[in-house]
């Protein structure tokens, strides 16, 4: 490829557009997929496998699947039998929540979206007012879901399915970030008592499995509480999940704090900012930004770990799934049930992951060199 | 100590900074040894000396980025002790510029400048922004106000850092080798800014090896070595007629290049 370079007098060279990439679909294919014999073979083998796997998946989930019918006997196409999902759809969504009260979780869900959007995106108009709503949303949600004061009371034993998973996941996420920040700052504190307390807490929680903490919260905690004091099983699970993930969160955030150069602390000090001001305005914004992938990683892990509560007798998505699988009417439909649950989890987790990527790009202010 | 002042001196008789018998150790290492220094209001002091002689440590003790263990430091009539109130009061009056600028990379240039006035001086945002623009104009980069520090050249960053300190309206400015991380052409623009600042009568303590700057604006040049003040004099005397052998050696080394 020899293009004759045009000659310019020294100092006269104009700005030229960058060279075009090798254009065309065919060139792209040739370069990426068929550049050598070995590459061509690999490409063909991969295409062969992809074709088989994908066609099997599409057959099972869609073309060979049954979507309408009454009983398992209607499922005769060879693929998935989605009737079980349709039959138990309400349980998957609400658990045993009273049927005539479904509007309450629905309304709570809509309000949750309204509350979360201004937290996630800073370019919406009137963000300040919406944030105020976000701050009081937990109380509204609690009132709507559990009732009292004019609404029929719904015991937390009756909450279940996606509703329960979301309650656990969202509460865990919302609580673990601030607790994690406080723990991380405490672990780096100059005050020996604060530091020791934080280190002990983090190391203890990280040293035991979540399932142990949940068991302790549901079985052992009542033994330590004074007679007559007994609080809700769900609340105990919530506290267990939140404490567990905040210990992990603390270590993720500490990693970010560690990465901030000493000069930033000195710059803030020299300008007369107080400890909390410099943390809030200078150090944490930078530290959290660095560890966004780690934070979202912890969120996703926490969200999925909430499924463990099915073991202490709460009916989250997995708990409802176990009931559905055990139903004689739908015997042998475990793959469909678990595939559906997997899909619900995948949607939430994938959304979190995409949001974190978007946020990283947005917060990039050219200081990474 | 020489009291002769140059024609452009804005020095007054009021004392701005007073160090009496200051000692500091890093662990076992005795880094500052019996430092005695009085700085008048409006006085411009240049501190020089070989690497590791304790210059940075000395000026960082003045706004308590480092703690001294013995002796008194009195800044603006406030004694520097463990008392957090005093430390805050002093830091509000003392601005500092660092070798590596220490701008906040997640904030725009304008936000860097308005942060402390808003949060420390409780100034309304609009007023703080007006003041910030005023100082950004003075350091000749008002057009960069919306950019982030990572998008500026080193010289521009250092001028932002100077503007940021000035926004707090300090009575004393400390500089720790503000030009030593910069390329020659950027050094000139930063020094010009500092010279202009000196002409306004600001009390300045400046660690630098820019001897041209020292000759031009300093009222006094201080030479440190091994944690001690070896010699101090007005610039003409200091450069033309150094008293101690160590000073002579140091000067011959840095002026040789
Ligand atoms: N945090 C610290 N812990 C222990 N020793 C330190 C610390 N900071 C500085 N020192 C030591 O104290 C001495 C003085 O340091 P200082 O930074 O004040 O020197 P300097 O005169 O500013 O040198 P330079 O011209 O290289 O900046 C050096 O020997 C250095 O190694
Ligand atoms: Mg130094």
From TrEMBL, chain A:
<keyword id="KW-0812">Transmembrane</keyword>
<comment type="similarity">
    <text>Belongs to the binding-protein-dependent transport system permease family. HisMQ subfamily.</text>
</comment>
<feature type="transmembrane region" description="Helical">
    <location>
        <begin position="163"/>
        <end position="185"/>
    </location>
</feature>
<dbReference type="GO" id="GO:0022857">
    <property type="term" value="F:transmembrane transporter activity"/>
</dbReference>
<keyword id="KW-1133">Transmembrane helix</keyword>
<dbReference type="InterPro" id="IPR035906">
    <property type="entry name" value="MetI-like_sf"/>
</dbReference>
<dbReference type="GO" id="GO:0043190">
    <property type="term" value="C:ATP-binding cassette (ABC) transporter complex"/>
</dbReference>
<feature type="transmembrane region" description="Helical">
    <location>
        <begin position="102"/>
        <end position="121"/>
    </location>
</feature>
<keyword id="KW-0472">Membrane</keyword>
<dbReference type="Pfam" id="PF00528">
    <property type="entry name" value="BPD_transp_1"/>
</dbReference>
<feature type="transmembrane region" description="Helical">
    <location>
        <begin position="308"/>
        <end position="326"/>
    </location>
</feature>
<feature type="transmembrane region" description="Helical">
    <location>
        <begin position="338"/>
        <end position="357"/>
    </location>
</feature>
<feature type="transmembrane region" description="Helical">
    <location>
        <begin position="40"/>
        <end position="62"/>
    </location>
</feature>
<dbReference type="InterPro" id="IPR010065">
    <property type="entry name" value="AA_ABC_transptr_permease_3TM"/>
</dbReference>
<feature type="transmembrane region" description="Helical">
    <location>
        <begin position="281"/>
        <end position="302"/>
    </location>
</feature>
<keyword id="KW-0813">Transport</keyword>
<feature type="domain" description="ABC transmembrane type-1">
    <location>
        <begin position="162"/>
        <end position="356"/>
    </location>
</feature>
<protein>
    <submittedName>
        <fullName>Amino acid ABC transporter permease</fullName>
    </submittedName>
</protein>
<dbReference type="InterPro" id="IPR043429">
    <property type="entry name" value="ArtM/GltK/GlnP/TcyL/YhdX-like"/>
</dbReference>
<dbReference type="GO" id="GO:0006865">
    <property type="term" value="P:amino acid transport"/>
</dbReference>
<keyword id="KW-1003">Cell membrane</keyword>
<feature type="transmembrane region" description="Helical">
    <location>
        <begin position="130"/>
        <end position="151"/>
    </location>
</feature>
UniProtKB/TrEMBL annotation, chain B:
<dbReference type="InterPro" id="IPR027417">
    <property type="entry name" value="P-loop_NTPase"/>
</dbReference>
<keyword id="KW-0067">ATP-binding</keyword>
<dbReference type="InterPro" id="IPR050086">
    <property type="entry name" value="MetN_ABC_transporter-like"/>
</dbReference>
<protein>
    <submittedName>
        <fullName>ABC transporter ATP-binding protein</fullName>
    </submittedName>
</protein>
<dbReference type="GO" id="GO:0015424">
    <property type="term" value="F:ABC-type amino acid transporter activity"/>
</dbReference>
<keyword id="KW-0547">Nucleotide-binding</keyword>
<dbReference type="GO" id="GO:0016887">
    <property type="term" value="F:ATP hydrolysis activity"/>
</dbReference>
<dbReference type="InterPro" id="IPR003439">
    <property type="entry name" value="ABC_transporter-like_ATP-bd"/>
</dbReference>
<dbReference type="InterPro" id="IPR017871">
    <property type="entry name" value="ABC_transporter-like_CS"/>
</dbReference>
<comment type="similarity">
    <text>Belongs to the ABC transporter superfamily.</text>
</comment>
<dbReference type="Pfam" id="PF00005">
    <property type="entry name" value="ABC_tran"/>
</dbReference>
<feature type="domain" description="ABC transporter">
    <location>
        <begin position="17"/>
        <end position="251"/>
    </location>
</feature>
<dbReference type="InterPro" id="IPR030679">
    <property type="entry name" value="ABC_ATPase_HisP-typ"/>
</dbReference>
<keyword id="KW-0813">Transport</keyword>
<dbReference type="GO" id="GO:0005524">
    <property type="term" value="F:ATP binding"/>
</dbReference>
<dbReference type="InterPro" id="IPR003593">
    <property type="entry name" value="AAA+_ATPase"/>
</dbReference>
